[in-house]
Amino acid sequence: MIYLDNHATTPCDPLAVERMLPWFTDFFGNPHSTHQAGQIAADAIRNSLQSIARLINVDVDKLVVTSGATESNQLAIRGAVTHPRQRRRHLVSVTSEHPAVLDVLKDLETDGFKVTLVPVVQQGHPSAGTVDMERLADAITGETALVSVMWANNENGAINPMAEISELCSLHGCLLHCDATQALGRLPVDLQSVKIDLLSATAHKFYGPKGTGFLVVGGGERRIRLRPQMLGGGQQSGIRSGTMNPAGIVGMAAAFEQSVKDLSEQPDRMRGLRDQLWSRLNEGIEGLVLNGAELEGTQRLSGNLNLQLPGIEGQAWMSSAPEVLFSSGSACSGHDAAPSHVLTAIGLNSDQARRSVRFGVGRFNTIEDIEAASHRLVESYQRLTHLTR
Ligand SMILES: Cc1ncc(COP(=O)(O)O)c(C=O)c1O
């Protein structure tokens, strides 16, 4: 198998696994117990969170541990805007956000909030897929409670200008939430230079374990009040009840430390592999179209490649070369393969979106992987198009 789907998830770093193991067996105490076993686990959590906080330049007390970015997004958005002190009822986000944001907003609409979804720059432009900044500025008003914009997109890798967006939100006195799931570990994130009130993350996108993530609460200058979404034992100052997972948190910190260390060379290495994949596929398949921002610029994640195939659906290509793992431009819900809303948001029609695929190159990929995968993919494309001719 050649795994080229690192936007969906990443393999857990062996170093993180090694650091996690003792927390399942030798040190299994409940970190909320006051006895010695509990305090050992609580200390490990504290040290791990301190390490993460230092790497994103924020106070450790601003981190709330969650089960991942889906939960962090719910807690951030629903928690902030339904707090009794929040009077404003308008929310702004972007058409290409992850469903873990869009579906929360849809639900809040049924509770009486007004939601404005801002479009993204359209296909064909060098920064296609990033939020349309003029339209964003027009959408925010004195009634806007919260703006939610992702740092980097999980399908087309588009990187949004978070510093500019942060300034815009301060100007209007509204909260800024950022789903930074695809950015952490892939881009430098410094919350002293970019002020973000609420920032969501998940460990399994930066070579950590699944089921563990965090939310930064109060990364900007404002004090943030959240209405808890999970009630119970009152852990984490009552903001997120539930027993914390020491192994998951230790693993998340170990994986994050390594990812940040790798930032000095991994993005360039991944860009090289991604460009190699693009050129090999282009050599073998006539008429490929790149979806989203240009590859040379700074507005696209370095390991991301999203492209349109001439003549066949992405899903058919995936099935014909099952040993190469990547994603199609359709999201399967039951038997219905709906075209990706991210691709239709940049202006593709449903046929173009269905003929699209996403590759995500990761830390563990090699030149040999890319050569073997592109060879196999070109061969299976030619076989498929020959059959359908
Ligand atoms: C941008 C983005 N937000 C949120 C999520 C959900 O993360 P999790 O799987 O940790 O709930 C994902 C994962 O696919 C993502 O890519």
Verbal overview:
With 389 residues, the chain is an alpha/beta fold. The chain has 2 domains: 132 residues, Alpha-Beta Complex (Aspartate Aminotransferase, domain 1); 248 residues, Aspartate Aminotransferase, domain 2 (3-Layer(aba) Sandwich). It has 12 helices and 15 strands. The strands form 4 sheets. The chain has a 7-stranded mixed beta sheet, sandwiched between helices. The radius of gyration is 21 Å and the shape is globular. 48% of the residues are buried. Bound molecules: pyridoxal-5'-phosphate (PLP). Pyridoxal-5'-phosphate binds next to α3.
Task: Provide a brief overview of the structure.
The protein has 389 residues and is an alpha/beta fold. The protein is built from 12 helices and 15 strands.
Small molecules in complex:
pyridoxal-5'-phosphate
The total count of helices amounts to 12
Q: SSE string, helix = H, strand = E?
A: EHHEHEHEHEHEEEHHEEHEEEEHHEH
**Looking at the structure, what is the overall shape?**
globular
Q: Could you tell me how far the N terminus lies from the C terminus, measured between alpha carbons in angstroms?
A: 29 Å
In CATH terms, what is the fold-level topology of the largest domain?
Aspartate Aminotransferase, domain 2
Mean pLDDT: 96
CATH architecture of the largest domain: 3-Layer(aba) Sandwich
How many structural units, i.e. domains? 2
> Measured on Cα atoms, how large is the radius of gyration?
21 Å
Low-confidence blocks of residues: none
Q: Main sheet?
A: 7 strands, mixed
Class by alpha and beta content: alpha/beta
Number of strands: 15
